[in-house]
């Protein structure tokens, strides 16, 4: 029996380079509450979380009890949508995703809300390519817990992470994927190569768009590479 195989993409900072926009949105809505949120603190403490978990942690760390939590959360999401209204998935990343989808099942595992992911995929014309899309609404425990990855694998019909590759941009995301049994490729869009390697990334690349489908296959474990190459040869013979 061949090992299960797939490529699972993080969304923020990997498919869409928008981590700075999430930070700016949080910074804007927290300023009236007297909270100053620097980028380094955001990256270290809060970036890995979904909006709801991150905001609760920010308010708790500042010692603020916010009675209108849902209102503040809604303002953050509105501010983010305005900031990224012209942001698109990089064209090189779009080509990679299309090429990867022809070779292996692909999925998204994200702490973003579904509407944000869906809008970015729609703009890029990628919404039909992913076999599973797991977002913040789908799990009770977001990253750095592995629940999202485990759910995505189940939706792809996979029993384990063996032979699967995750692409992540944060230490917490790397740990979540590794705890689910996946091999992780780190993308240095937000954190340094050393930070991602220390978190457990097996390989590190400067950006998702720097990869092509062949290089992505070479980043996979050896048993997966062989099976993927065999599938491509079979498809060429059938065509």
Key features of this structure:
about 240 residues, Rossmann fold, DNA polymerase, domain 1, 2 domains, 11 helices, 6 strands, globular, disordered C terminus
Characterization of this structure:
There is one protein chain. This protein has 239 residues and is of the alpha/beta class. It folds into two domains: 6-17 and 89-238, Rossmann fold; 19-83, DNA polymerase, domain 1. It has helices at residues 19-30, 39-46, 51-61, 69-83, 91-101, 114-124, 147-155, 171-179, 193-199, 213-219, 222-238; strands spanning 6-9, 106-109, 132-134, 164-168, 183-187, 203-205. It has a six-stranded parallel beta sheet with strand order 3-2-1-4-5-6, with helices on both faces. Helix 8 links the parallel strand 4 and strand 5 (183-187). The longest helix is centred in the C-terminal third of the chain and has 17 residues, at 222-238. The chain is globular and about 50 Å long. The two termini are 26 Å apart.
Structural class by SSE content: alpha/beta
Question: In percent terms, what proportion of residues is strand?
Answer: 5-15%
Oligomer: single chain
Q: What is the CA–CA distance across the termini? A: 26 Å
The level-1 CATH class of the largest domain? Alpha Beta
Task: Give the rounded overall mean pLDDT.
Answer: 89
Count of helical stretches: 11
| Main sheet makeup | 6 strands, parallel
- Across the major sheet, the strand order is 3-2-1-4-5-6
CATH topology of the largest domain: Rossmann fold
Secondary-structure element order, as H and E?
A: EHHHHHEHEHEHEHEHH
List unreliable stretches of 5+ residues.
223-239
What is the second-level CATH architecture of the largest domain? 3-Layer(aba) Sandwich
Total discrete domains: 2
Determine the CATH superfamily of the largest domain: HAD superfamily/HAD-like
Query: From the alpha-carbon coordinates, what is the Rg to the nearest angstrom?
Result: 18 Å
According to DSSP, the number of beta strands is 6
Helix content: 40-55%
């Amino acid at each position: 029996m061949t090992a299960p195989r797939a490529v699972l993409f993080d969304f923020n900072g990997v498919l869409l380079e928008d981590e700075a926009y999430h930070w700016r949105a949080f910074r804007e809505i927290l300023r009236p509450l007297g909270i100053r949120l620097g980028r380094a603190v955001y990256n270290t403490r809060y970036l890995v979380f979904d909006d709801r978990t991150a905001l609760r942690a920010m308010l708790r760390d500042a010692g603020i009890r916010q009675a209108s939590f849902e209102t503040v959360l809604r303002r953050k999401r509105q501010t983010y949508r305005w900031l990224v209204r012209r942001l698109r998935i990089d064209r090189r990343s779009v080509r990679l995703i299309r090429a990867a989808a022809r070779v292996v099942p692909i999925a998204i595992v994200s702490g973003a809300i579904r509407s944000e992911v869906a809008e970015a995929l729609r703009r890029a014309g990628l919404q039909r390519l992913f076999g599973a899309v797991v977002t913040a609404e789908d799990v009770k425990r977001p990253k750095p817990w592995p629940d999202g990855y485990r759910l995505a694998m189940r939706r792809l019909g996979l029993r384990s992470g063996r032979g699967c590759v995750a692409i992540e941009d944060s230490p917490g995301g790397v740990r979540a994927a590794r705890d689910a049994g996946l091999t992780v490729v780190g993308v240095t869009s937000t954190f340094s190569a050393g930070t991602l390697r220390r978190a457990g990334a097996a390989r590190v690349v400067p950006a998702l768009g720097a990869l092509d489908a062949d290089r992505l296959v070479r980043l996979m474990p050896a048993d997966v590479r062989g099976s993927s190459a065999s599938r491509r040869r079979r498809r060429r013979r059938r065509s």
